[in-house]
């Protein structure tokens, strides 16, 4: 639906995005998207950010996604006061799938993750999957004052799978 690229920025407020079959928001090349008070329902591949771009999601609800919600490659995501319920993925991380060539940062605060599932063969990270290429990368995960309920992964990390990170903080 929306593509933000080449050092561009967008803010989206009070919006419902329902049943789209392509990434709803695609952010790349050092751009950013900020979303406030939005509802995303049943969107496969809802958000994609790469090439040092940023997704900032505030006070929003995300339910029923079938191929993960946020896919992040060398970028940054902030989730604040958001709720993620009944999202699934067959690969990794039903809510956040973050992989890094050099730099991924995921900041989560005051969020609820409930009944998110990763169920494919070799699937890890029921709600969140984050990995860096090696210990020298800047890949980091910060989770504060958040709740994880009944999340499930077939192999490892029912709520969170984190591997080869420079920094992790869970509170």
What is the string of SSEs from the N terminus onward? EEEEEEEEEEEEEEEEEEEEEEE
Content of β-strand = over 45%
Task: Name the shape in a single word.
Answer: globular
In the predicted model, the low-confidence regions spanning at least 5 consecutive residues are none
Widest beta sheet: strand line-up: 1-4-7-10-14-18-22
The main pleated sheet reads as: 7 strands, parallel
Structure annotation, total helices? 0
The structural class is: mainly beta
Distance between the termini: 35 Å
State the total count of DSSP E strands: 23
Q: What is the residue-mean pLDDT, rounded to a whole number?
A: 89
Radius of gyration: 14 Å
Helicity range of the residues? under 10%
Report on the architecture of this protein.
Helices cover 0% and strands 49% of the residues. The chain has 171 residues and is mainly beta. The strands form four sheets. A seven-stranded parallel β-sheet has the order 1-4-7-10-14-18-22, with no helix packed on it. It has a seven-stranded parallel β-sheet with strand order 2-5-8-11-15-19-23, with no helix packed on it. The radius of gyration is 14 Å and the shape is globular. The model has no long low-confidence stretch (mean pLDDT 89).
């Amino acid at each position: 639906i929306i593509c933000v690229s080449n050092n561009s920025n967008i803010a989206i407020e009070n919006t419902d995005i329902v049943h789209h079959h392509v990434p709803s928001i695609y952010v790349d090349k050092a751009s950013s998207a900020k979303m406030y008070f939005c509802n995303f329902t049943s969107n496969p591949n809802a958000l994609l950010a790469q090439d040092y771009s940023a997704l900032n999601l505030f006070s929003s609800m995300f339910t029923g996604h079938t191929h993960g919600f946020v896919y992040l490659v060398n970028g940054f995501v902030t989730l604040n006061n958001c709720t993620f319920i009944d999202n699934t993925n067959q690969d990794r991380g039903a809510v956040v799938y973050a992989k890094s060539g050099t730099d991924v940062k995921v900041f989560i605060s005051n969020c609820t993750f409930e009944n998110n599932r990763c169920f494919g063969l070799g699937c890890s990270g029921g709600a969140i999957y984050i990995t860096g290429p090696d210990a020298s990368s800047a890949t980091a995960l910060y989770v504060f004052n958040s709740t994880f309920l009944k999340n499930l992964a077939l192999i490892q990390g029912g709520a969170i799978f984190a591997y080869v990170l420079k920094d992790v903080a869970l509170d």
